[in-house]
Amino acid sequence: WSDEPCAAHLTQREGYQATTQGQLKDQLYQEIINYFDKGKMWEEAIILSKELAEQYENEMFDFEQLSASL
């Protein structure tokens, strides 16, 4: 969950618009959670959702994203 800039080769995939490593990790977590949901692997999605919610609440202070994820 770093604020260091992303290397260009990490954001060349379509749909990623991250400027920091933390933003890229957030986008990847969202994508993984969506795939777990599609695959009906809700237990795994819950684990990552809780980790992401903790980041929103305690590190990023992004309460809009926290609300949306809950």
Helix/sheet category: mainly alpha
Q: Kindly state the number of beta strands.
A: 0
* SS summary, helix count: 3
* Oligomer designation: single chain
Order of helices and strands: HHH
Tell me the helix content. 55-70%
Radius of gyration of CA atoms, rounded to a whole number: 13 Å
Based on Cα principal axes, name the global outline.
Answer: globular
User: Low-confidence spans: pLDDT under 50, at least 5 residues?
Assistant: none
Structural account:
The mean pLDDT is 87. This protein starts with 20 loop residues before the first helix and ends with a helix. The protein is an all-alpha fold and 70 residues long. It is built from three helices and no strands. This is Dedicator of cytokinesis protein 1.
In summary, what is this structure?
The protein is an all-alpha fold. The protein contains 3 helices and no strands.
Which features characterize this protein?
70 residues, mainly alpha, 0% strand, DOCKER_Lobe_A, Dedicator of cytokinesis protein 1
Secondary-structure map:
Layout: H1 21-38, H2 42-60, H3 63-69
